[in-house]
Design brief:
The chain is mostly helical and 151 residues long. It has one domain (14-140). The protein contains four helices and no strands. It is flat and about 55 Å long.
Length: 151
């Protein structure tokens, strides 16, 4: 496995431990919906997102399954960073903040249409923007020296 993954960088991370643990939780938050989109019969498009599958359901379900596959991999890489490569935690939090901001802009402003149904992810993105920003600031701020070895 060492040929595939380099040694951990956790001992070089100086940000708040909470930021790394939040990123780990955020990674799980990618994997779970990814599994739903990949393995639920309707990919969650109808049962969770509430979309009308009356027109071309195979295309909608296929697109959700494709998104699910990318979510699973994204979550796994995010978990690896949070658990073993913590020097990248601020970068991953910044990327997550940009992603959620673009998703929210697209859902609520840029491509928003009056009266259009919003799936749960649109609301989650709005909530996550300030939370991710908080943990990004904590990751960038040097944490106090904590006993017990590497974080």
């Amino acid at each position: 496995m060492t040929a595939l993954l380099p040694p951990s960088t956790n001992h070089h991370y100086r940000g708040a431990r909470a930021a790394a643990w939040f990123l780990a939780l955020y990674g799980v938050g990618w994997i779970v919906p990814g599994m739903i989109h990949s393995f639920l019969p309707d990919s969650g498009a109808g049962t969770i997102a509430g979309l009308d599958l009356g027109h071309n359901p195979a295309l909608i379900i296929g697109l959700f399954a494709w998104a699910g596959a990318t979510q699973i991999v994204h979550g796994m890489v995010t978990l690896a960073v949070a658990l073993h490569y913590r020097t990248l935690v601020p970068l991953f939090l910044l990327v997550s903040l940009l992603e959620r901001s673009l998703l929210s802009w697209s859902a609520w402003v840029g491509r928003a249409q009056p009266g259009v149904h919003h799936p749960p992810e649109h609301y989650a993105s709005l909530i996550l923007i300030p939370v991710i920003l908080l943990f990004l600031l904590l990751a960038l701020r040097p944490a106090a020296i904590q006993p017990g070895g590497p974080r």
